[in-house]
Amino acid sequence: MVTTAGESHGLGQVAIVDGCPPGLPLSEEDLKHDLVRRRPGQSKLVTQRRELDEAQILSGVFEGQTTGTPIAILIRNQDAKSKDYSHLQNVYRPGHADFSYEAKYGRRDHRGGGRSSARETASRVAAGAIAKKLLHEAVGGLNVVAWTRQVGEIIADIGDPDLITESMVETQADGSPNPTRCPDLQAASRMYQAIDDARKSGDSLGGVAEICASPMPAGLGEPVFDKLKADLAKALFSLPAVVGVEYGAGFELSRMRGSEANDIIVAGENGLPRTVTNRHGGILGGISTGMPLLLRVALKPTSSLPRAQATVDRSGATTEVRTMGRHDPCLLPRFIPMAEAMVALVLADHWLRQSSVRVLSSP
Fold first, then answer.
1. Which end of the chain is less congested by CB atoms within 10 angstroms, N or C?
2. What is the assigned CATH class of domain 2-355?
3. What are the residue ranges spanned by the domains of the chain?
4. What is the pTM of this model?
């Protein structure tokens, strides 16, 4: 279980990870890699807020290993510029949670969106790094890799998702960083230009992230209410800007006949059943089949825009608003480690559940 605390312009972000088994080698260095991937300021395609995002482990680790007790992580905020948001104190920004937060709590933190800011996801990425390490070391080398599949109207040609590695996502042909995190480098170049054009015009773009987890064990997920697909959808929908989640062939299945949609089952090399195709995305009946887990997540364009937009203030008077802070013109590049983190946390949770199952008899 993971819980977080923190606001965009508060003192910092906190994650508490409860339920991690004892004996997992863990250090602050293990959290650094994914935090750097999520960190702002890494290219001109993302917000220029300057945060080191260095995680400090406060509890739950002793002599380099987890103790089984709750792990507390602190990431301090260092570059908040609250004055950039002073004009928003009594104004509701289009596309934001300003009004809905006030409707719920009767007040809100207007500085950078407060709790609704994507700044909160730094703590989730730190927690997800623990889950990713647990999965890789304890679940047969399982890896979770995400990438940018689409930006605006530009769609990458990915091929076999199971063959995509983090190196393909993170680097270009010359070894330099890949700012779009799209492994199709031709599409990545067009995505880069589209995002930069939107940035220069004071606008933003949305897109689609794709996530693959493999090699997957069969049997993860609970019948009915805690289906693996349900928990994955909830986890991914909890991230900012997410407007849709699908797995396998997703909505394409709604246009097929059953004879086209079903994946033919054959005997695998290990003697266990496998399917020739993977339109089911590695989940049947809410339980993993052992085929690669494949998901796609749709993100809306960034709501914070420097151009004028019509709105109202607290009194109901019509006005205009410009968001003057530092924001991503497209959320996809920094969303990739966030998506990986949430998928890894769900898979780790279900693996721990399955590990407690005791089979009394075999069929």
1. C
2. alpha beta
3. 2-355
4. 0.93
